Amino acid sequence: MQVTRAEQPLARDIDKRSLIDARHDRIFQWVLKFCALLVLATLLGAALSTLWGGHEVLFGHSLHFLASDAWNPVTDDYGALAPIFGTLVTSVIALVLAVPVSFGIAIFLTEIAPTWLRGPVSAAIELLAGIPSIIYGMWGLFVFVPFMANVEPALSNTLGQLPLIGQLFQGPPLGLGLLTAGIVLAVMILPFISSVMREVFQTVPTRLKESSYALGSTTWEVLWDIVLPYTRSAVIGGIFLGLGRALGETMAVTFVLGNSYNITSSLLMPGTSISSSIANEFNEAVGIHRSALIALGFLLFVVTFVVLLVARLMLRQLAKREGK
Amino acid sequence: MSAAGIYLRRRITNAGALIFGSLATALGLLFLVWILWVTISNGISSIHPNLFTKITAYADQGGLSNAIVGSLIMDLMALLICAPIGVMAGTYLAEYANSSRLGSSIRFLNDILLSAPSIVMGLFVYVIIVLPMSNMTHGNVSFSGFAGSVALALIGLPVIVRTTDEMLQLVPGTLREAALSLGVPQWKLTVQVLIRAASSGILTGILLALARLAGETAPLLFTAFGNNFMTLHPLDKMASLPVAIYQYTNDPSPAMHSIAWAGALLITLFVLALSLLTRLLFSRKKVSYE
Amino acid sequence: MLISCKFPIRFAAVAAIAVASTFAVGAQATDITGAGSSFVYPVVSKWSAAYAEKTGNHINYQSIGSGGGIAQIKAGTVDFGASDMPLDEATLGKFGLGQFPDVIGGIVPAFNVEGVAPGKMVLDGATLADIYLGKITKWNDPAIVKLNPTLKLPAATITVVHRSDGSGTTFNFSDYLSKVSSQWKTKVGEGTAVQWPVGIGGKGNEGVSAYIKQIKNSLGYVEYAYALQNHIGYAVMKNAAGNVVEPTIANFQAAADTADWKHSRNFNLVMTNAPGANAWPITATSWVIMYKQPKNLANAKVAFDFFKWAYEHGQEQARSLDYVPLPPSLVQQIETYWKTEYKM
């Protein structure tokens, strides 16, 4: 270190460099901020454009629109209750099924599988995300609906006989309906949740895991007590990614949901969802009808907003209980 | 409970979890194989040179060449638009606005937009790009491949923002402190250390975005419109595989259906190939955070 | 590390070159664009391929739905629109639009009842309306038995299937039910989408035919070509003249022939429940919509030439796809309409 001899020029150099660095830093931050604001603006614009497109229905008959389960394009009488119901029910079914399975896949890919198997299997699971949603729809329509029609009598005879939840499994075995749509959605969001889980599980410092193993923990205990808490916020992010897809998915749901404006207590009955109503009717709709469909799009934003808000509040509660 | 009993219970729980993990993976793969098998068995009769050489105008005697080219152009253009913006915006959220109000509102809105029905994005682009262009050019340029890619980019954007944000937040703070203590400026730290450390996760996000936008139909109907003939110009109305599939599945003819299935297989293979290719290119680096 | 760092840059460079080079290729200005009805998409795209080979002009037709087609022609983003539902005088006048039919097709009731072969079930309008109103719920209802005294009909519940997406098929079907049942007219009415009293909705003809195939004792309605090519049981109908008729190209043509085109203004006529002795009762057409004073005159001229060519030379192709070409008298009337209404 020949600090003394080079002190003068170096100091000047450092000054100059730190000035340049500071400028670069500022520019860099501005560019990033600009991008973030761009995202904010376009996304906000998209959301507001649905508000604008649906204003006739949203502001004209707001209460009726929110509280009615009618949907009559001939008399232009629209209510959003049935689509909202269908969207929530199918998404909940999808999450209930997909989250544990995704967790299992992530465990397999990070802890169980031999290293050579991990790459191909994770690429395969990610491939589920790459199948066009219309193909899920076609597969659902031609293959999965008939399959479910064979399974549903068994469900009615077993689960359907139980008190309370028995109500959920009543009705004729059509094969299509809320449950079928929920299962198809679960398969579609599987890769989103499991990819993120696998990715974040790998980021847990080996040191942490090894310390736990050294104390005699089993693989499961390391996962449940070390890995999951460490990555919790990102895991929840992944679940939101899946939830987002489930709430907004159109084509696949449209083919297997039965598309009837019903609110039923049975998961085996047909229903409709916000996005499938839009996808079904948008192309042919004019006037108030189109406005009602765009208003449904806006309602999906509102529903998502509420769902995310509830999720956030629950997380905060959880964090409080853990004393954070 | 005796120590041995506890030990046994722990072992059983552990074995159960491992079996569950394997079964879950098997279930996921089962669905993949099931869907792929249905796709292949329905589309295999149309995997034919015509598929790549003839245009959609010839319907059941044609192919999908213009749709393949259109999809490639629009998907890549969409990725070029949304990947840099998404990664930079995600970086901003994670590194600069992690706990600020602006950051959390962008994050929240982004989560909401993950679920936006894709047709809404198409409509938005129709209003901000297609109509103004049509007015400016007196109808000569209205729907375009460019408008289609912007709509697709809006579908992919929230996915990339979300994953980039998450992945950067998982990079341990020690890495930042180490770099900063060496006098590395923040932008260099971000680009050369943090994004690199999180690159595999960010890449996963980009691939998921690509997988999602490559199969979208609804946002393209009112933006790229479709074209029964071949075009390479981004300002022309442009064909795409999902739109062709959508139209062909609505056709009475079984021959058209099998072309649709073949098109679906192509999209799936395209996503698989890109996913494998990028994984291969990145596989050599595995950053450890120790 | 090096690879990971360089890769995006190289990738970006390659992609940038690709984009730049595609911009360099000139846009083709001779493209004619049409949009709308999915009902006519198969035949118009077939025609466009043959027409392109003959003249070099590209007619790019995309099925974005009738409503979409109407919206786009109004916005001036396309050269012609196509709709399964005619526009009324007020709308045509307000926007300076004209419309004319391009091709004819049939809609058939389709069913899945064990032991009943395609074409063996007879239905009439009133019965069909009562089934779709939910008033007739069993296959062995006296009304159905009366029409089919020789059939062994099960005592099973009818699963009613309808289209879930807005469609011209639904418009014509509900229009027919409105004409034959006053109760349908007041309770439900007609439109590309209606509030169905009963039943499940399938997306597209595809979805409806799949449901009918999969669900026992179901009844629905699909385009003729679907019933034919997917081997679904279709019903024969008692028409307005009281005759039981088969869904055949000849009987669709009979409906078009006997529909009262001469007295329609701007071809604003839905030809369901046509009076002819052999007329198939649920026969439908689709309209081409164009500006009377087009923004782009050259394009409009090519579009007219295309339809003229299709009326004259596209008949074989239309028949091969189970559509019915327009009767010569109607074509003549359209060509007169062009001369008088369009300022070319």
Give a short synopsis of this structure.
The complex is a heterotrimer of chains A (324), B (290) and C (344). Chain A is an all-alpha fold. Chain A has helices spanning 7-53, 55-60, 62-67, 81-112, 115-130, 133-158, 178-201, 206-214, 219-230, 232-248, 251-256, 274-281, 288-321, and strands at 71-72, 77-78.
Account of the 3D structure:
The complex is a heterotrimer of chains A (324), B (290) and C (344). Chain A is mainly α and 324 residues long. Chain A has helices at 7-53, 55-60, 62-67, 81-112, 115-130, 133-158, 178-201, 206-214, 219-230, 232-248, 251-256, 274-281, 288-321; strands at residues 71-72, 77-78. Chain A is built from 13 helices and two strands. A two-stranded antiparallel sheet of chain A has the order 1-2. In chain A, strand 1 (71-72) and strand 2 (77-78) form a beta hairpin. The mean pLDDT of chain B is 88. Chain B is globular and about 75 Å long. The two termini of chain B are 39 Å apart. With 290 residues, chain B is an all-alpha fold. Chain C is of the alpha/beta class and 344 residues long. Chain C has helices at 2-24, 41-55, 66-75, 89-95, 125-133, 142-147, 168-180, 182-187, 204-214, 224-229, 249-258, 297-313, 315-320, 328-341; strands at residues 32-36, 59-63, 80-83, 97-112, 122-124, 159-163, 200-202, 218-223, 233-234, 236-238, 244-245, 283-291. In chain C, the strands form two sheets. In chain C, strands 1, 2, 3, 4, 6, 7, 8, 9 and 12 form a nine-stranded mixed β-sheet that branches. Chains A and B meet through helix 1, helix 4, helix 5, helix 6 and helix 7 of A and helix 1, helix 3, helix 4, helix 5 and helix 6 of B.
Defining key terms:
heterotrimer; B: 290 residues; mainly alpha; 12 helices; 0% strand; C: 344 residues; alpha/beta; 9-stranded mixed β-sheet; 3-stranded mixed β-sheet; elongated; disordered N terminus
